[in-house]
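Input sequence (668 aa), recorded before submission:
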Amino acid sequence: MNAPSLSPAPAAADTPLLALSGVGRDFDSGGQRVAILKDIHLEIRAGEMLAIIGPSGSGKSTLMNLIGCLDQPSHGSYRVQGRETREMSADELARLRREHFGFVFQRYQLLAGLSARENVEIPAIYAGAPDHARHERAAHLLRRLGLEERLEHYPSQLSGGQQQRVSIARALMNGGSVILADEPTGALDSHTSEEVMRILQELNAAGHTVILVTHDAKVAAHAQRIVEISDGCITADRPNEHAPAPVAARERDTPPARNGTGAGMGAAFMQLREAARMALHALAAHRMRSLLTMLGIIIGIVSVVLVNALGEGSKQKILANLSSMGTNTISVYPGKGFGDRNSSAITTLNVSDMRAIAAQPYVDSVSPQIQSSVVLRMGNIERTAQISGVGEQYFRVQGYELAEGIGFDAESVRTLALDAVIDDKTRAALFAAHENPLGKIILLGSVPARIIGVTAPKENNFGPPSQNLTIWLPYSTVMGRLTGSQTLQNITVRIRDSAAPSLAEEQITALLKQRHGTQDFFTFNSDSVRNMVEQTTLVMRLFISSIAIISLIVGGIGVMNIMLVSVTERTPEIGIRMAVGARQADIMQQFLIEAVLVCLLGGLLGIALALLLGQVIQQFLSGDFQIVFSSAAIVLAVSCSTLIGLAFGFWPARNAARLNPVEALANQ
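Predicted structure, token format:
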């Protein structure tokens, strides 16, 4: 049976399968060029079983590496079925190794973290074979080689002969038109050596071209042709007249169908998935190192998520407190600004202004205010108190809640009722803890008033608590019965939630300028305080988050260092993967995915730890303060960890992808 074509281009019938002409290979040694191979001329026909024999250091392994496209000649020509390998790209050479060359190494070169079946499947993964076809092909090859009971065994659980059979099955996975066996029996006993040689002879009888590289004349005796090499030169090339009789041909298998490397979204997704699976294998094989690598990422993510949660909780707490002082309020005062010495002389701010403002569609509620200080008396108790004349909507405008009783209404305002609402401090000053203040009469100077309500305590979040005793009466009562003035000290407007505070402020200003004929007043928008709080908390969160991001960067540098060490430790593995056909892009993809997985897993662990710590911290905080975890912050943290994996994993992945296959394989 003919071996499959190595090239899509048609070739002449007499064209050798492999042809080396004037090939030399030089290496640098101590600053000097040393010639390992010198003027090699060799042609190999399809279906041959050829032995390259020579002592150690003769250059036979270097020649095998050149034939298998693991290395390139320093000079001369090497053609694969008529095509010059110098003209091939790195990906085309990888495709030859993946789909047409099969390597059988002396030390087996199996990946310790993969089972026998998974080791055999590696070439098909890089060839883009579908899962089911790949699994069936690998199992079939291993059964043919007598390993049907060892499919899921790891290399450490297999004998030397069994490992070599796995290596042979791997070489056949994608067809293996040319089998390159480097000292295939060097680490085996005599009985197992005979079995391996019989398998190679059967493969040759089935149409595979088999090239043996050995220093053992007994192994070379199985070949039909023997090429002797010494000191980098071919000294003899002769047929083996004493070659054993051909053995019965093994059944030639058809390689699994290929999607083609990089062909289509399906193949790309499959290769990405397999790269992720292999990356997880590598991480699982070094659990402690992987966890330590993640530590910097975990700390950084915990910092970012917790800082944002605490910052968001603080902001919401402050804004809630601010809302309790009056949500979306705009206050109008006479004068040019706070502290204006002439403001007391301005008498244009009056009740009709308040009513005009109340009629506007963006207004939720409105209340005027006029204040005065009086001597408060009840029985033998005498205190200085602040009288505040307000409208019936005042308590809604300012966000007060009544702990006892009721507030006054529009009828109270119209009739100048002597109804009073006192604050909690006034209640504590005048009454015992369990005494009911409702209905009691108090004297405001010489004017009596009946208590109808008591407000609930209200925190002052912008300074120390007020020591004043405050009593609220209808503004009409204060104007008509206490002060005699018809001028308001301020008007406070609560804006509807659907309205924009800044636009409402502009319209109130325009309305009062039209009514007064000039701007003899100024406004204070509580939304500016809200914005200031939000900006301040944002700045603080950004500042603290920047520190957390530094820890993420430090963690990323740790990932890069560990990945560089990992590349060094796994250099032989990289060489094996390149030998079975992995492209530079495949190697780079795998190590990039490993770096991203380390950071992503570290990010997820960091998020979980941050949520746990948040619950613990919440137990030690006051009940009205809540740690608020933001989904946006969590997504940002995961994104940051992924980007760090990409950024800091790129250099190690690039170094891994640029390794020389021969040097990587030799680095045991």
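Checked by second reader. Residues 526-569 form the longest helix (44 residues).
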